């Protein structure tokens, strides 16, 4: 795709399903929906939607039938597996691609497939999403590497902990990019140190792979990554699939986490002979539609090119940091230096002094049609660390933060709209009364009774005999 200008209307915007949607506001006519919530869930690419529609014509029982549709569906499913593997640099024979529902399921699967000695620990970090923390607590003692006051990984503390537990660290579990601050730890440098101390490394790549190229590396390279996990819903393919990609030898032996049809070769009343390859980990009928969507998204991002994506998002992140810093009473958490935008992703947490972060998120939505996220973003220890910094912060910051995140279709003009609306909130320009809803745990304008059209399903009609 030929991309010419960074700050012109984003040429990729029309390639997202729903980009032309207009939503009701508290006052005035319906407004375009401005998305600054890419870090949570991305809209589907039109090319992904088209790939799913084509696949549905041949949809059949994957790996379960002799019918021609079943054979075609099985071939497409395995082609999707190969595409996802190449997307992250998986080496044939060294790595295995296992389709999951999402990153959370991937790490739960891995946690139950790794073997631990009684004296071994998992080294994870304070930066992690709960998905890369809680699964490890269920199988081994967990030790956390500190985050610095600005939200970066404390590399000295990491090295010290590896030294302290040398020979006992079974796994290092670390994010490739924080879903709270966009901080990107040097994962390949961390891998070298982990391997030197006899540990493997697993990377939560859910936030990373939609923005930066990832390469697992050859297993003979000390900087290689042993396992990575990703989710389609953060990769412009929200069709319910994710993937765990990692060392094939880890999954060659032992019982899988999920057992049932498809994961076995032979079953008697006393014996179970498990299947080889990824089938061992994919019991039951797989989400073939999700796998096709995930593979199509991988191909689409490769076509756009990560060099362009990185440069585009770096420029927008730098611009956003500089403009947000001018909003009175607004505090940015994490690295807020616009000149360092190339070292991070466009995930920007902030709070507005004297304003509940959930109220700020609601006002952005109802007043201007701007979608952001508020709260702790499934990373409560990390957000607490950020809010505990001594120098300054918001008076109501302990309620969480507001997060604006940049994605494929973000433009400079959208950032201007976000910043202008925050200026208006800070000035008190909006005179609408907002009330807290105990059921939804969020705010809405007093008297708001907008009914959303939920008629997504066709009226059922009797099937012809």
TrEMBL record:
<protein>
    <recommendedName>
        <fullName>Aminotransferase class V domain-containing protein</fullName>
    </recommendedName>
</protein>
<keyword id="KW-0663">Pyridoxal phosphate</keyword>
<dbReference type="Pfam" id="PF00266">
    <property type="entry name" value="Aminotran_5"/>
</dbReference>
<dbReference type="InterPro" id="IPR015424">
    <property type="entry name" value="PyrdxlP-dep_Trfase"/>
</dbReference>
<dbReference type="InterPro" id="IPR000192">
    <property type="entry name" value="Aminotrans_V_dom"/>
</dbReference>
<feature type="domain" description="Aminotransferase class V">
    <location>
        <begin position="36"/>
        <end position="418"/>
    </location>
</feature>
<dbReference type="GO" id="GO:0031071">
    <property type="term" value="F:cysteine desulfurase activity"/>
</dbReference>
<dbReference type="InterPro" id="IPR015421">
    <property type="entry name" value="PyrdxlP-dep_Trfase_major"/>
</dbReference>
<dbReference type="InterPro" id="IPR020578">
    <property type="entry name" value="Aminotrans_V_PyrdxlP_BS"/>
</dbReference>
<comment type="similarity">
    <text>Belongs to the class-V pyridoxal-phosphate-dependent aminotransferase family. Csd subfamily.</text>
</comment>
<dbReference type="InterPro" id="IPR015422">
    <property type="entry name" value="PyrdxlP-dep_Trfase_small"/>
</dbReference>
């Amino acid at each position: 795709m030929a991309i010419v200008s960074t700050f012109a209307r984003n040429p990729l915007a029309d390639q997202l399903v729903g980009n032309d949607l207009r939503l009701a506001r508290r006052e005035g006519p319906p407004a375009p929906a401005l998305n600054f919530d890419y870090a949570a869930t991305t809209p589907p690419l039109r090319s992904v939607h088209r790939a799913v529609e084509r696949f549905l014509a041949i949809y059949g029982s994957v790996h379960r039938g002799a019918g021609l549709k079943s054979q075609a569906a099985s071939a497409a499913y395995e082609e999707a597996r190969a595409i996802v593997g190449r997307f992250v640099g998986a080496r044939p024979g060294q790595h295995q691609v296992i389709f999951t529902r999402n990153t959370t399921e991937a790490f739960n699967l891995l946690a139950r497939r790794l073997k631990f000695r009684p004296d071994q620990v998992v080294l994870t970090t304070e930066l992690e999403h709960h998905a890369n923390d809680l699964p490890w607590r269920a199988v081994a003692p967990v030790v956390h590497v500190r985050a610095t006051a600005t939200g970066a990984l404390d590399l000295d503390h990491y090295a010290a902990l590896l030294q302290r537990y040398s020979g006992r660290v079974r796994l290092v579990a670390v994010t490739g990019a924080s879903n709270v601050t966009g901080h990107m730890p040097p994962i390949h440098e961390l891998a070298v140190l982990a391997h030197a101390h006899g540990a493997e490394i697993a990377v939560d790549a859910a936030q990373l792979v939609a923005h930066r190229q990832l390469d697992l590396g050859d297993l003979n390279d000390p900087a290689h990554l042993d396992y990575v996990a990703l989710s389609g819903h953060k990769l412009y393919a929200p069709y319910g699939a994710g993937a765990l990609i990692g060392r094939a030898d880890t999954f060659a032996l032992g019982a899988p986490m999920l057992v049932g049809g498809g994961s076995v070769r032979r079953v008697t009343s006393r014996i179970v002979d498990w299947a080889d390859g990824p089938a061992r980990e994919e019991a039951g009928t797989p989400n073939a539609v999700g796998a096709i969507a995930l593979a199509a998204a991988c191909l689409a991002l490769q076509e756009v090119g990560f060099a362009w994506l990185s440069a585009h998002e770096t420029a927008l992140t730098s611009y956003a940091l500089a403009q947000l810093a001018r909003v009175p009473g607004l505090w940015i958490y994490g690295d807020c230096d616009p000149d360092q935008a190339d070292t991070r992703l466009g995930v920007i947490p902030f709070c507005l002094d004297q304003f509940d972060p959930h109220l700020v998120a609601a006002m952005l939505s109802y007043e201007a049609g701007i979608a952001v996220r508020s709260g702790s973003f499934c990373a409560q220890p990390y957000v607490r660390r950020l809010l505990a910094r001594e120098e300054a912060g918001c008076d109501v910051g302990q309620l969480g933060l507001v997060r604006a995140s940049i994605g494929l279709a973000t433009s400079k003009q959208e950032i201007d709209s976000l910043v202008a609306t925050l200026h208006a909130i800070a000035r008190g320009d909006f005179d609408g009364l907002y009330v807290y809803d105990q059921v939804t745990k969020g705010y809405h304008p007093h008297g708001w009774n907008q009914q959303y059209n939920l008629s997504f399903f066709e009226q059922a009609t009797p099937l012809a005999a």
